[in-house]
Amino acid sequence: MSGHPHDNYPTRLERPADPIARIEPTVWGEGNDGPLSEHDLKTMAANGYLTRPQTLGQNWLRPMGDELARIGGLIDDEDPRIVRERQGGIRSVFEPHLFSDVIAEVIGLDTVLPVARQLLGSDVYLHQARVNLMPGFTGTGFYWHSDFETWHAEDGMPTMRAVSCSIALSENYPYNGSLMVMPGSHRTFFPCVGATPTRNHTSSLVRQEVGVPDQATLTAAANRHGVDQITGPPGGGLWFDCNIMHGSGSNITPFPRSNIFLVFNSVENKLCQPFAAAEPRPEYLAARTTEPFSVQSATA
Amino acid sequence: MSGHPHDNYPTRLERPADPIARIEPTVWGEGNDGPLSEHDLKTMAANGYLTRPQTLGQNWLRPMGDELARIGGLIDDEDPRIVRERQGGIRSVFEPHLFSDVIAEVIGLDTVLPVARQLLGSDVYLHQARVNLMPGFTGTGFYWHSDFETWHAEDGMPTMRAVSCSIALSENYPYNGSLMVMPGSHRTFFPCVGATPTRNHTSSLVRQEVGVPDQATLTAAANRHGVDQITGPPGGGLWFDCNIMHGSGSNITPFPRSNIFLVFNSVENKLCQPFAAAEPRPEYLAARTTEPFSVQSATA
């Protein structure tokens, strides 16, 4: 389907296949390339994730809350960049930096953009950006998956040289659906069974049905790596590798969860044809430019 | 419907009604009536729950695991005492002490039965007993509710003089669907809207649809009381009042949760006609005897 002469990370297969050891490094930059210390970089390389308190300072939280409310109110329900929960509430808004100078400014902060450059050892662009507005009571969570598995299969991302940054805009408790990761799982690629349905993204953003490992694979991975849950106050940043196994449970509490979610890709990791899908996903899910991100270009 | 001349805790109403302050005490016994200290009793009275590590000693855990496997294998699928998840796995087995001398023995332990007697200040009987076998991956959790609300409405329990004891048989992590409680919420009765469907128990044990407070009520209660999550190693006991607001999220991890769940009622709190249902639930969900529990009678 893909027309690629060779695929290092085959997935969406007809039958189960063995896990594949990751080829690329996790950290591409050095300790003097940006804000992260050598210790930070070692932690990221070993665990596949790194927490950075106060990625967004306290003074940002109220304006950000106002901005989320404004964005949630502005946008046309027919806009595909708005993903709703099955019950109707808004779950995500994609490309929020195109609606909001405030969010574009956040992406350009010293605690954000230079960290992405340092981790990936190059200029970076936004592969995907969204704000997630997870309401209390009805948040259904998200099953275990590797983002790279989807980006490789459906977007044509060739190598593991992308990183996500999630900035909490509300308190992450242990019991309101906070993200779980399997630390160290980013060094293994788990091929998944099942062909990609046409226009899979129209349902997979609410509930992923393909591109998830089977239960035996997840059990072995959890027993090997354990599970870490990411909790903490608003403003905290979580950086996690594109291939780390992660997921979240439901949220029956009244306490909502909101975050800004940014995926940075190296400009040297340009997307090609999807490796396991008929057509690439839309640009708002997977940008096909490699123009390095700058606040000016976002808000122009 | 109930024929009761007066109902202190009306529920399953046609329209919303104000919360009602609890009439009865939470703790009925004294510090010299049993294993609990004055401090324990004060904690229980204030919070509505109490944790007791090693309610089941380490030496019990392997035999209990074997016993659960045996019970799960023995029982006829047509037996109504077996409740399955929507996906098919076994969720609960009721009256396990009638299938298992080992479980009957656990109920009679010094860390269990005398605690129940002390909390309720009288002889006690088993209103309900079950083992819960919550598998990894597919545990769907349970929405917020007060048990007393159901026992009053559907079983005819007249007063708040019952207590539950949950004994963990597997590790309760923050992220595998562990029980959440709103500490202090047991002192308020929240009337619920919606009449009880006929034979409601045939579906409510998998997913409760009536007898749950509305979101505004739960939000106010959570903001007032907060949420505590009960975690810890196997063998730990959790005692919680019949009227505390509690629930649990989903479990997408591979780590299962199992427990023995015992509801003790005071022999002075005999069930009468249901307060808001046409017929009482079956005996295996709500025993109508008040014969005090003893290991001998359970295994006779």
TrEMBL record, chains A, B:
InterPro entries membership: EctD, Phytyl_CoA_dOase-like
EC category name: oxidoreductase
EC number: 1.14.11.55
Reactions this protein catalyses: L-ectoine + 2-oxoglutarate + O2 = 5-hydroxyectoine + succinate + CO2
Protein role: Involved in the biosynthesis of 5-hydroxyectoine, called compatible solute, which helps organisms to survive extreme osmotic stress by acting as a highly soluble organic osmolyte. Catalyzes the 2-oxoglutarate-dependent selective hydroxylation of L-ectoine to yield (4S,5S)-5-hydroxyectoine.
Assembly with partners or alone: Homodimer.
Name this polypeptide is given: Ectoine hydroxylase
Gene that encodes it: thpD
